[in-house]
Amino acid sequence: MPAPARSLTIVPSIRLYRGRIFAFGPGKAALLEHIGLTGSISEAAKAMEMSYMKAWKLVKSMERGFAEPLVRKTRGGSTRGGATISPTGRKVLTLYREMESASQAVIRRVTPRLSRLLK
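Now predict its structure.
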């Protein structure tokens, strides 16, 4: 059911930066989850309808933003490669989802009060 035309919708978007370097956000979180589900950067990219190259670049950028890799990669070839989320990757994803959940709780609490102030 669509929201009434005058209802207020607030959509938070949490993005982590290390200095000026973008380290993590909603897209990278989704990619990390898909890698965890599929065991493959290529399959994760397909599931997200993005190119393998873009997914690979996102994984590499995550490596630049964190002290330890968030994804463990296995080279392909005749045995077929793969990818898994590292323990650090799981921690980052868990903390990120925790921040999202906390922000949603605050939004649910303040939205009625903020809605009353709108035209």
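Residues 24-71+79-98 form a domain with the Arc Repressor Mutant, subunit A fold (CATH 1.10.10.10).
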